[in-house]
Amino acid sequence: MGSVLAGRGTSFDSLRASASPRRVLRFTSAIVKMMARMAIAAWVAAAVGAAAFAQAPSAGEQARLLQEVRATALGYSDFLPDFVCTEIVHRSDNDAGTWRNLDSVTLQLTYAGKKENYKVILPGGMVSDRDITSVGGAISVGEFGSTLRWIFEPESATTFHWEKSAVVRKTPVWVYSYRVPRAGSHYVLAFGGGADVQSALVGFHGVLHVAKDTHMVVHLTTEADDIPEDLPIRESSTSIDYGYTDVGGRRFLLPSGAETDMLYQPSRSAEKGQFRNLRPKLMRNLVEFRAYRKFAVDSQVDFGGDGKP
Fold it and tell me: How is domain 65-294 classified at the architecture level of CATH?
């Protein structure tokens, strides 16, 4: 059967029977030209749309958008339900050009009353009373609203700069850079365990991806700056991704994964005057969040997936 053209019920077979080859050629050529014009028009429309999408908002519009994003970010804690999830931190280091797997730390993270609480899960699935700092090494916290508050609270004196519009994982976003000075920061770098914990308040900066439709942050990065000279952590950066997750039959935007990278440079004082092991060391934490569920006093450990940490 021939192909129908323009809805007139005319097929190429009947066309060949009633018209000369030259007329068929001219008719087909006209169709090709029309289709080419339509394709060009569609391309121009898409290009114009993309240009409009990429155009920076005016200063007044940027201020208005930031106020809406700030209100959404600061209301994030109110938006979240009380929940429990399992956080698994895969730790590795690199001091000779090759990454080496160190260990995996499993935590029960409870979010209740707008506060985060971490408990170490022992082998066998038992939840201990050990504080998160007892595990030693590098551990990051604050993925559940704390970092957003540190960025958007007015007293943080954060400066923002609109960078561009983009599409990330099929989501149209605004991209902002930001900087929080140490004077207004709540961001603490800490390393070590127990009584040997070394910590310092630092400033930080990074990038925010804000969903255009919801004004919610779907990705953020932090990079520490203004680090005191006596702190062995010389560099620290974190990247957090957020995704929609079911909790108690409703969907909420929650962290789906995070990565923290640090540069550790032990000082002579940290080594008690010994000059060994002073080589810089890169450290990396890959964090995954599993088994989100509504908080209950008797919540049990759930590793999610295959049930293994």
Answer: Clam (2.50)
Distances (CA, A) of 2 to 9, 20, 27, 183, 249: 10, 17, 15, 76, 53
Beta bridge partners, 217, equal 210
Most confident of 44-58, 176-190, 277-291: 176-190
Torsion sign, CA atoms 55, 56, 60, 65: positive
Assign 3-class secondary structure to 92-120: EEECCCCCEEEEEEEEEEEEECCEEEEEE
Reference 55, options 169, 182, 162; nearest CA is 162
What span, in angstroms and rounded, lies between the C-alpha atoms of 165 and 153?
24
The amino acid at residue 175 is V
Per-residue pLDDT at 206 exceeds 80? yes
Give 159-191 pLDDT, tens digit per residue.
999 999 999 889 999 999 999 999 999 998 887
Amino acid at 159: T
| Contact assessment for residue 126 and residue 110, using Cβ atoms and an 8 Å cutoff | no
Cβ distance 149 to 74 under 8 Å? yes
pLDDT tens-digit map of 93-118: 998 889 999 999 899 989 888 888 88
